[in-house]
Design brief:
Strand order of the largest sheet: 2-8-7-6-5-3-4
Largest sheet: 7 strands, mixed
CATH topology of the largest domain: Aspartate Aminotransferase, domain 2
Structural class: alpha/beta
Number of strands: 12
Helix content: 40-55%
CATH architecture of the largest domain: 3-Layer(aba) Sandwich
CATH class of the largest domain: Alpha Beta
CATH superfamily of the largest domain: Type I PLP-dependent aspartate aminotransferase-like (Major domain)
Order of helices and strands: EHHEHEHEHEHEEEHHEEHEHHEH
Length: about 400
């Protein structure tokens, strides 16, 4: 049976280059990066080298603006809670959107219990944050705006540069969850009005369990994890040296391959979308093809439940998802699709296809051969479907 992996927004396959970069620090080079002897100094050099590679990949002004974390979720927590606590004497208002990842939304709910006020901006029908509403939501107590760069479920890209200009005029901190944007969109943080940005290694063919938070020089932040003086005093705990080394190598390769890989994936994504819409009736694109990550396609299949499609495709060797991997196991319709105004029944029948470095045209052809009969068979069993009427 052919195996086709189209769930790269959940995680990518770690590259052999990233694994090779990790191996010495899981075997012979085992010192603690905080130790002053030769064993520790050797490891510290590796951490510093990886930090420089990640900083270069992100377009940071210096490597000191990159703090290593355990992943995107911790980075989001560190940014939101860190700023809220550091600036509580100046204001207690945070602005975010209703299509954010739960790593942001649940932190905002937590901060509300601590006395913060949070405004949740509504996205438009394509899932893009409305700039007019953002401007109207800002008040003198606002200390932070957190808007994701690209949505993990739909791939829709927000107008981050425009938001940065709005924020700069007001003197408010701006955080973006850039986990899905990294490696797919070109950017240089030093030339943008972004104060904090979250990243995760396993979305760019690096290892799981390591990420980064970009913190622009001068940004005030209360540490989330207390203890020693690791990560320039911003995140205590012995560094995950092997993971950091793998992250550094993955970031290095992602920068080199970004342009060619994005062009290839966008072509395959469009080929998949055209194939689906030409072969299967009653489908809906959840998002906007003009403002979409090159690798992501979220399609709704009316009259069906997405889980049934996922399971049937899995039996044919094809891996896709109904949305965020972090919410798998719940029967609730996607909060992102609901926020976009998608009917709850239609939202239940939506599938996310997220392509990756190894995806080929032959893989897409196989999906287009397998998917139509699956949808046809499931619709014939669906009580919602009456010949498409």
């Amino acid at each position: 049976m052919r195996k086709v992996y189209l769930d790269n927004n959940a995680t990518t396959k770690m590259s052999k280059e990233a694994l090779e970069a990790m191996m010495p620090y899981m075997t012979d080079v085992y010192g603690n990066a905080s130790s002053v002897h030769a064993f520790g100094r050797e490891v510290r050099l590796a951490v510093d080298a990886a930090r420089a590679k990640v900083a270069d990949f992100l377009g940071a002004a210096s490597k000191e603006e990159v703090i290593f974390t355990s992943g995107g979720t911790e980075s989001d927590n560190m940014a939101l809670r860190g700023v809220a606590h550091a600036l509580r004497g100046r204001g207690n208002h945070i602005i975010t959107s209703n299509v954010e990842h739960h790593a942001v939304l649940n932190v905002c709910k937590y901060l509300e219990k601590e006395g913060c006020q949070v405004t949740y901006l509504e996205a438009d029908r394509n899932g893009i944050v409305k700039l007019d509403e953002l401007k109207s939501a800002i008040k003198k107590e606002t200390v932070l705006i957190s808007i994701m760069w690209a949505n993990n479920e739909t791939g829709v890209i927000n107008p981050i540069r425009e938001i940065g200009l709005i924020v700069k005029e007001k003197g408010i901190y701006f955080h973006t969850d850039a986990v899905q944007a990294a490696g797919k969109l070109p950017f240089e943080l030093k030339n943008m009005n972004i104060d904090l940005a979250s990243f995760s290694a396993h979305k760019i063919y690096g290892p799981k369990g390591v990420g980064a938070l970009y913190i622009r020089k001068g940004t005030k932040l209360t540490p989330l994890v207390l203890g020693g003086h690791h990560e320039m005093g911003k995140r205590a705990g012995t560094e995950n040296v092997a993971g950091i080394a793998g992250f550094g190598r993955a970031a290095e390769l992602a920068k080199i391959e970004l342009a060619a890989e994005s062009a290839k994936l966008a072509e395959l994504r469009d080929y998949l979308y055209t194939g689906i819409t030409s072969r299967i009736e009653h489908t809906r694109l959840n998002g906007d093809l003009k403002e979409l990550l090159p690798n992501t396609l979220n399609v709704g299949f009316r009259y069906l439940e997405g889980e049934s499609i996922v399971l049937n495709l899995d039996m044919e060797g094809i891996a896709v998802s109904t949305g965020s991997a972090c919410t798998s196991g719940t029967l609730e319709p996607s909060h992102v699709l609901r926020a976009m105004g998608v009917d709850p029944v239609d939202a239940q029948g939506s599938i996310r296809f997220s392509l990756g470095r190894d995806t080929s045209k032959e893989d897409i052809d196989y999906v287009l051969d397998v998917l139509p009969p699956i949808v046809k068979r499931l619709r014939e069993m669906s009580p919602l479907y009456e010949g498409g009427k």
